[in-house]
Amino acid sequence: MHAMTLNEKLDFEWKQVPDPVRKQGEVLIRVVAAGVNRADLMQKDGCYASPEGWPQWCGLEVSGIVEEVSADAPVKTGDKVCALPGGGGYSEKVTVPVGMVIPVPEGLSMIEAASLPEVWSTVYLNLKQEAGGMKPGDVFYMQAGASGVGLAAIQFAKIMGAEVITTIDSEEKAAFVRKIGADYVLDYRKEDVRPVIKAHPPTVALDCIGGRLMGECFKNMVFGGRWIMIATMAGAETVIDLETVWRKRIRLIGSTLRSRTAEEKAHILHCLQTELWPFFSQRKLVSNIHAVFPINEVEKAHGVLRRAENIGKVVLTF
């Protein structure tokens, strides 16, 4: 088979590699499409390697057709599935533990399906499991609201009944996040989110930005608030008033999906299939596809994310 590997200079290289050999408990998938994520950009830059046992090239979510699987598995040969590999999704075939493979939601295309596993697993893990969920009257805060994770998080928060505060950097993005339910939308280039945070203290925050603003907003959370860090795009340093942490019983939670065990990921995907897939089939949840590129245009696909042009997901096809 062929895969979009990374050479010694960390340049993309479409090359022939050995076909993956399915082990007991795994599914062999012929890849149709793969979602692009910021973790892929980090891996391309040499600072986020695949976990041990996975191919050392990019690709954390795919859709495809089952080619080989055990007879007793919940998916069958020929099924349309999406999956959450720990790496190596930018290839014509991939093997994935059976628990990390689930059917494509009814009515969705393979391109849409490829955009779901990573971002929705991230959102479910952090908003439901780490934060304990939300309820009507709660306030959810997330910057980068038009990103793939941002759009998913906003929709999930609204399903749970929360109000949503988010930031964007264009009128086009603002219009889209309002369309999917965001209540307070601020253009961070010319508007200050801090007065809004102070007036509407967050119950839960999902933070992929970090930096100075994190510490300034953190202190305004409600009593018992949960602030979850998943990335630090604006910098890894900030100042936090520790007295506020204990007085208000605020929890600062660090979280990653990629390093979770196969069993943990399987549980998350099972929850997605049983709890959220019906919403996708009913179009009450959507995955906005910003752009689709053939795999040989992977540099263009990564460029869209690097320039933060995307509203939703970028997908590669094979």
Topology:
Blueprint (H helix, E strand, L loop, with lengths): L1 E5 L5 E5 L9 E11 L1 H7 L17 E7 L11 E4 L9 E5 L3 E3 L6 H5 L2 H14 L8 E4 L5 H12 L3 E6 L2 H9 L4 E4 L6 H6 L4 E4 L3 H8 L7 E4 L12 H6 L3 E4 L7 H20 L7 E6 L3 H9 L6 E5 L1
Parallel strand pairs: 8-9, 8-11, 9-10, 11-12, 12-13, 14-15
Antiparallel strand pairs: 1-2, 3-4, 3-6, 3-15, 4-5, 5-7
- Share of residues in helices: 25-40%
Which homologous superfamily in CATH is the superfamily of the largest domain? Medium-chain alcohol dehydrogenases, catalytic domain
Strand content: 15-25%
Q: How would a crystallographer describe the biggest sheet? A: 7 strands, mixed
Q: Return the domain count.
A: 2
Compute the separation of the termini in Å.
12 Å
Helix/strand-derived class? alpha/beta
Number of helices: 10
CATH-assigned fold name of the largest domain: Quinone Oxidoreductase, Chain A, domain 1
CATH architectural category of the largest domain: Alpha-Beta Complex
The helix/strand order is EEEHEEEEHHEHEHEHEHEHEHEHE
Radius of gyration: 19 Å
* Top-tier CATH class of the largest domain: Alpha Beta
Shape call = globular
Number of strands: 15
Low-confidence stretches: none
pLDDT average, as an integer? 97
